[in-house]
Amino acid sequence: MSNDRSRSPFDRIADRYDETRGGVRRGRQFAGSVDSFLASPSVIADLGVGTAAVAEPLTDLGHTVVGVDLSSAMLDQASERIPGRLLVGDVQTLPLDTDSVDAALAVWLLQLVGDFDALMHEIARVVRPGGLFFHVSSTPRIEPNDITDLTLKMSALLGRGWDRSSTLASRLMPYGFVFQTEIAMAHDDVKKSPNQQADWIESKVASMFWDLDPADWDAYVQPTVDALRALPKPDKARRCTESHLLSLYRRRE
Ligand SMILES: C[S@@+](CC[C@H](N)C(=O)[O-])C[C@H]1O[C@@H](n2cnc3c(N)ncnc32)[C@H](O)[C@@H]1O
């Protein structure tokens, strides 16, 4: 890892990242799904590698993974998992050679990057012709109930969901990436009450709330918190099933 110590909003959550995002168990599920599309051991760039929760099991499956991330604190966690294979850097100017990887992987990254065009230009540069781009949307498929109805509406009002393949596929075409398929990766079956969901929003553990304009919080988030707490039996847990969506694109030869 480079000694260039950078500052990133994710520095603040690095110590708690795994416990709040499914940790190694979630990483193994995602890695297994990615691996199922790779015929042979591959060189993979994990963009926004974070704590290497996905990169480590991909390495265990025989792939060579290089991870790039802005956050030194996240990379400190990752360095215990894939030492020597990490680069501090911005995915908008990737510290990787042209046509140097068989596949790029972006899990929950696109919505965090300021310049989508710069990111896609870089992905198209480093992935070899015929190589793959794997993308996991930050907006999972969620089975409807009274809690998820409210939170999905809030997410849409905050502009989330554009990174699903239904929208993304056409945006990747100009960079030479052609949509192949999308699968739902069963992630979690959690039981949550409306009050627990409201507490979770207010704890601001999710990055979508970190830099939110206070006016947007007042207009969209606080009313959602209030509506959650006003639901019938607000301490009774509901089953909330989330499936994360993995989409796959191939770079034209
Ligand atoms: C939600 S986390 C996902 C981490 C990992 N992919 C996973 O599955 O757990 C997003 C990561 O992207 C990194 N990130 C955000 N913007 C970035 C950028 N412009 N360049 C590099 N990394 C970035 C953050 O520091 C963070 O570690």
SSE topology:
Blueprint: H1 17-20, H2 23-35, E1 43-47, H3 55-60, E2 64-69, H4 72-79, E3 86-88, E4 101-107, H5 116-126, E5 127-136, E6 141-142, H6 146-157, H7 165-172, E7 177-192, H8 194-203, H9 214-229, E8 238-251
This protein binds S-adenosylmethionine.
S-adenosylmethionine binds at residues 8, 10, 21, 48-50, 53-54, 68-71, 74, 90-92, 107-109, 112-113.
Query: What is the CATH C-level name?
Result: Alpha Beta
Largest sheet: 8 strands, mixed
- What's the rounded overall pLDDT mean? 93
What is the straight-line distance between the termini?
Answer: 32 Å
For CATH, the homologous superfamily is named as Vaccinia Virus protein VP39
Uncertain residue segments: none
SSE string: HHEHEHEEHEEHHEHHE
- Determine the CATH topology: Rossmann fold
Number of strands: 8
Give the overall shape, derived from the CA principal axes. globular
Strand content: 15-25%
Helix proportion of residues, in percent?
25-40%
Bound molecules: S-adenosylmethionine
Q: Specify the oligomeric state.
A: single chain
Q: What Rg do the Cα atoms give?
A: 18 Å
- Helical stretch tally: 9
CATH architecture: 3-Layer(aba) Sandwich
Count the domains.
1
